[in-house]
TrEMBL record:
Name used for this protein in its record: BRO1 domain-containing protein BROX
Family in the record: Belongs to the BROX family.
Biased composition (Basic and acidic residues): 275-304
Species whose genome carries this gene: Gorilla gorilla gorilla (Western lowland gorilla)
UniProt entry tagged with the keyword Transmembrane helix: no
Length: 311
């Protein structure tokens, strides 16, 4: 979490550090701090539930507010929509990591990565009309994740092309992955230097980020060797178009509904509350200082014999 997911502070919350380095001093404690298969499923499900909650609030409750949400605040429509999309994208990140771990077909991984990159691009576009003071840092994060997963898509698409004996196109796909990975690294630095709400995470320091750099480099070198010994194909000047569509692993928000209201809250009861007639709160107004009367000190003369003694 400390390295990978950007989180904006919501109202009435304090920054939470998930950095346990230097704190964990034994294997049992370390085991508790490591994303297991069942825990990964829980993270995946929790992100889908979160997306459903945000979606439900946006569609069913926020429009009913008496006063509209202020721009750049927690309940602003564009922010809520960006939260929905980001939760979907992050849930798919868990799917991608799982697919890579289980060595699924490169074509499936490429398609999932491409769909995830599109999610991040869509979330970034949703925030584009907000003032930079509210969105600049968040948008840098979304942009770097978009570049990162597009690089993943080109990398695994290159493997698919090589398996189909299209070595020249595979090399060009890997070259594009290399360029996008370098761009993602640069955006990580820009993100760290951008001021804005939320603690700064360090995706470029995460093992999952660094692994892609090595994978792109090694796969590109492999394709170049194969082309030099076997295929002798011309390398296209244009990168291949990623017209990828995942048939599995796509994330949809889990529908959410609040529990039903108490039977006491009838329309008649609700209508009986008129907030426009709420009494004004005068407690914050400064009150005139009360007159402080001087306190007269008692005139007590010391006596020689008080009747008190220490035994």
């Amino acid at each position: 979490m400390t390295h990978w997911f950007h989180r904006n502070p919501l109202k009435a919350t304090a920054p939470v550090s998930f950095n346990y380095y230097g704190v964990v001093t034994g294997p049992s404690a370390s085991k508790i701090c490591n994303i297991t298969e069942d825990e990964a499923k829980e993270v995946h499900r929790s992100l889908k539930i979160a997306a459903g909650i945000f979606k439900h609030l946006k569609e069913s409750h926020i429009p009913k507010l008496i006063t509209p949400a202020e721009k750049g605040r927690d309940l602003e429509s564009r922010l809520i929509e960006a939260y929905v999309i980001q939760c979907q994208a992050e849930a798919q990140e868990v799917t991608i990591a799982r697919a890579i771990e289980l060595k699924h077909a490169p074509g499936l991984i490429a398609a999932l990565a491409y769909e995830t990159a599109n999610f991040y691009q869509k979330a970034d576009h949703t925030l584009s009309s907000l003032e930079p003071a509210y969105s600049a840092k968040w948008r840098k994060y979304l942009h770097l994740k978009m570049c990162f997963y597009t690089a993943y898509a080109y990398c695994y698409h290159g493997e698919t092309l090589l398996a189909s004996d299209k070595c020249g196109e595979a090399i060009r796909s890997l070259q594009e992955a290399e360029k996008l990975y370098a761009k993602a690294e640069a955006l990580c630095k820009e993100y760290g230097e951008t001021k804005g709400p939320g603690p700064t995470v360090k995706p470029s320091g995460h093992l999952f980020f660094r692994k892609l750099g090595n994978l792109v480099k090694n796969t590109l070198e492999k394709c170049q060797r194969e082309n030099g010994f076997i295929y002798f194909q011309k390398i296209p000047t244009e990168a291949p178009q990623l017209e990828l569509k995942a048939n599995y692993g796509l994330v949809e928000p889990i529908p959410f509904e609040f529990p039903p209201a108490s039977a006491q809250w009838t329309p008649e009861t609700l209508a009986a509350f008129d907030l426009t007639k709420r009494p004004k709160d005068d407690s914050t107004k400064p009150k005139p200082e009360e007159e402080v009367k001087p306190v007269k000190e008692p005139d007590i003369k010391p006596q020689k014999d008080t009747g008190c003694y220490i035994s």
